[in-house]
Amino acid sequence: MPSTLIVRRAENVRGDVPAERLAEWIMLLLDGFAARVVTSDGFVAEQEIDMLNEQVTLLLDGPPASDERRSAAARRADHGSAPISL
Hints:
By secondary structure, the chain is an all-alpha fold. Helix content is 67%, strand content 0%. α1 packs across α2. The longest helix has 21 residues. The radius of gyration is 17 Å and the shape is elongated.
């Protein structure tokens, strides 16, 4: 099954990022994880799998919406400031 379909079928996925982009980021995490397992004797997949799962979950859920973040966004909007872009 293509990775974008897997992301689309998830029930609680953030809506601010397209499924294709989320799938690309998940693949990036998985590729990096696999590369590290292969190239580093000290990096053991079985010991790190929980961290990988946590990072994928955070990616799919999106950033937590805290009162502080909402207030900062409101202040930027009030002053006409935009987030930094590259």
